[in-house]
Design goal:
Chain lengths: 77, 334
């Protein structure tokens, strides 16, 4: 997993979910909290800053931030 | 005059602009042609212009009086993208906006944000979940709303309760197990949707297995909390509970069971189910045991009117759904 991409996605998640704790690859979406508008904010940040479009419908099936990072990396290849 | 006849008259009196991103579908195209022909809406097909023209000719459908927004027109896309990028609700950078200019569903929603159309209508091809997510992303939630939901209206034969035998209900289709905040949102949005469609003085009952404190458990707590949130957010609306079904619609039962002053108890014309289990079962009981016609479900909670139809909807159902959406859009515009 690309460390730089991971750090960026973790920062986006902290911001989108207004999450005070530390976000890592193992952080689950359940821990971050419910809310499709927050997920929309997260995917918009990823698309704008990393030019990687991951459909929200796909993110909704993911358990952890690590899974999202792997999917983002696929889009960036 | 039936509710639908009244709605058709209102829609025709001030036709709204409706974007159709699934005009390549034959059923949808035939519905659009009928709407345009009847003067019920100003229809805009959003898609590949040449393909839409070819399909119309092949099907023998006239597109006279129907605007076509061609998503393959690069100059048109660039002009729309420039306007969207300058809009405060645009979440994307130029690349992301450019991508969305060529996707009919997202382009239609962007046109709605820009004020080029009043209603976005889809669902014959796209899944409801995809439409909701795309609309949440681009159009956004209305102020004070926590969730997208749906409501409908049932026309119950040989019943004089509700509002002359008609009764609104929400949410039977979208929000699975609402929190108190979400349940309050459903009550508020449903009150507004039903008022926009019917002009009724809406009396909204939050339903439960308990009436006015007759039971005490966490299911009842949720409904009571929703009532308090709804009343705090919108004191101008008549929203009350918790009521059992009979206490909500029957004045005699309400007189026995409800021990506080209520403008809603016994005379509700809008019912709010506590979750989708109750909602789905409740509507099907009403339809199957009484032979009621049901209008809807209509999506609600967005900043603008976004409508989703069943993937098996025939032309007549699509026309009816568009008419209802247009009347709601009229009310939203004031």
């Amino acid at each position: 997993m690309n460390q730089e991409v991971l750090e960026q996605v973790c920062e986006f998640a902290k911001s989108a979910y207004k999450y005070d704790g530390e976000v890592t690859a193992d952080t689950t979406f359940a821990e971050l909290g419910k809310g499709s508008m927050k997920m929309i904010a997260l995917t918009s940040m990823i698309e704008n800053e990393l030019d990687a479009e991951v459909p929200i419908r796909e993110v909704m099936t993911m358990k952890t931030i690590g899974e999202l990072v792997e999917r983002v990396e696929e889009e960036m290849e | 005059m039936s509710l639908m006849e009244t709605l058709r008259e209102r829609a025709a009196a001030r036709p709204m602009r409706v974007a159709f991103p699934e005009g390549d579908n034959e059923t949808m195209m035939r519905a659009v042609a009928e709407l345009a022909e009847a003067g019920l809406a100003k229809c805009v097909l959003v898609g590949d212009g040449a393909e839409l023209a070819r399909l119309a000719e092949e099907r023998g459908i006239s597109l006279d009086g129907i605007e076509v927004v061609d998503v393959t027109d690069e100059a048109g896309n660039a002009a729309c993208a420039e306007r969207y990028l300058a809009h405060p609700d645009c979440k994307y950078k130029p690349k992301g906006v450019a991508r969305r200019m060529t996707r009919p569903l997202e382009r239609a929603l962007i046109m709605q944000v820009l004020g080029d159309v009043d209603v976005m209508f889809a669902g014959i091809v796209s899944a409801t979940g995809d439409i909701i997510l795309a609309a949440q992303t681009i159009v956004g939630l209305a102020d004070g709303v926590d969730t997208i939901s749906s409501c409908g209206i049932a026309d119950v034969p040989n019943w004089d309760g509700g509002e002359g035998g008609l009764i609104g209900f929400g949410d039977s289709a979208v929000c699975v197990n609402p929190t108190p905040e979400e349940l309050a949102s459903i009550a508020i949005a449903s009150s507004e949707t039903v008022a926009a469609l019917t002009g009724w003085d809406v009396r909204c009952a939050l339903l439960s297995h308990s009436t006015d404190g007759s039971m005490d458990n966490e299911l009842v707590d949720k409904v009571r909390a929703a009532r308090d949130i709804a009343n705090e957010r919108r004191p101008d609306l008549k929203i009350d509970g918790e009521f059992q079904f009979d206490a909500a619609i029957n004045p005699k039962v309400a007189a026995k069971k409800v021990h506080h002053d209520s403008e809603v108890a016994g005379r509700a014309n809008l019912l709010i189910w506590p979750d989708i289990n109750v909602g789905n079962i409740g509507v099907k009981i009403i339809q199957n045991l009484t032979g009621a016609d049901a209008y809807g479900p209509m999506l609600q909670g967005f900043k603008k009117i976004v409508c989703d139809c069943s993937r098996s909807a025939p032309v007549s159902e699509i026309v009816g759904n568009v008419v209802m959406s247009c009347v709601r859009a009229q009310a939203l515009e004031g």
